[in-house]
Design brief:
The complex is a heterodimer of chains A (about 70) and B (about 250). With about 70 residues, chain A is α+β, with helices and mostly antiparallel strands. Chain A has helices at about 15-20, 55-60; strands at about 5, 25-30, 40-45, 65. Chain A contains two helices and four strands, in the order βαββαβ. Classes of the chains: A alpha+beta (about 70), B alpha/beta (about 250).
């Protein structure tokens, strides 16, 4: 079981983490807007996360922390 | 649970001003991770360029200096010669390093100055709004080449690594990319080696990072990374172009 935390207020919604995730469990939340005015990336199924940190590796804004 | 990934300590809390999906953020982080791993935050001195990364001094927690456009290698030369105990690096884009700063780049490489140069190549002038750069690909549409870059009129894109590797001077010249996880991890290894070379006194190390500019290329961040793979990497192949130590030891 791994835990991925997003610093959602700093997310720019670029979606690079969504494309990098091998489990396909990240998504851009089209119904949410953060303080910067972007739709942020969110985790849809924490249980399936394997803690590979591919999302954090591709995140250009260093907003993802991964624990395993 | 143990933390397996977090923001490196060598980055400040300042929020990057870069556009969504801009790989500058990834490359900043790689440099900061290397600074953390080598434990050199206290003695690292960075030189920021003019271009999109002009405010890099806000983001790196080590000492930073802003150089005049293109002159980062010259400024770094001065710092390193006055303070050889410090670790001096420059962070430059293609408009800075390969255009106005070409002379400083070539001569600091020829002199084998003991500095580390991080060269971010995104084939366009990002900060000023997407004009053609010396590294723009043949046929690439930019603000100043709306019908695509015509090589008969504008010349051919400059391959910085290939050119510098013909010099006797430099120690380490390599090209990496940040378009996928594997390439990002390899890019970090190259950046770490470039810093280690300086610490070991080996001389001039340049890491060209093939990057993207989703905003000025008119693409989504993901499309831009795919374009890096399909169009940029065939023209700018990844690889080690010069590694004098490895060549001497016969490992290349």
């Amino acid at each position: 079981m791994a835990n991925v935390t997003f610093h959602t207020d700093l997310c720019k919604g670029c979606g690079l983490c969504v494309n990098a995730c091998p489990k396909g469990i990240l998504a851009i939340a089209a119904d949410k807007i953060n303080k910067k005015g972007y739709s942020p990336a969110v985790m849809t199924d924490q249980e399936k996360c394997i803690g590979c940190a591919f999302c954090a590796t591709m995140c250009p804004d260093c907003i993802i922390t991964v624990e395993k | 649970m143990a933390v397996v990934f977090e923001k490196p300590k060598a980055l400040t809390d300042a929020v990057f001003h870069y556009c969504p999906g801009c790989p500058h953020g990834i490359i900043h982080r790689l440099v900061a991770e290397v600074i953390d791993e080598l434990g050199i935050e206290g003695k690292a001195i960075g030189v920021a360029p003019v271009g999109c990364a002009v405010m890099a001094y806000d983001y790196f927690a080590c000492d930073m200096i802003e150089a005049a456009h293109g002159r980062a290698p010259a400024v770094a030369t001065g710092i390193k010669r006055c303070r050889p105990e410090n670790v001096v690096f420059t962070y430059q884009g293609d408009g800075d390093l390969a255009s106005i700063g070409m002379a400083e780049t070539v001569h600091s490489a020829a002199r084998n100055e003991n500095i580390t140069v991080i060269f971010v190549n995104n084939a366009i002038y990002g900060m000023t709004g997407g004009q053609m750069a010396p590294t723009s690909l043949p046929g690439q549409v930019t603000q100043t080449s709306p019908y695509g870059r015509d090589v008969n009129h504008c010349g051919w894109p400059i391959k910085v690594c290939e050119m510098l590797s013909t010099l006797e001077g430099p120690e380490y010249i390599t090209r990496v990319a940040v378009n996928n996880v594997k390439n990002v991890k390899n890019a970090k290894k190259a950046i770490k080696k470039a810093f280690q070379n300086q610490i070991e006194g080996k001389g001039f190390s340049l890491v060209e990072v093939v990057s993207a500019c989703p905003t000025n290329w008119g693409m989504t961040p993901q499309q831009a990374l795919e374009w890096v793979e399909s169009d940029m990497l065939p023209y700018y192949p990844i690889g080690v172009y010069k590694d004098r130590t490895a060549a001497k030891e016969g490992t290349v």
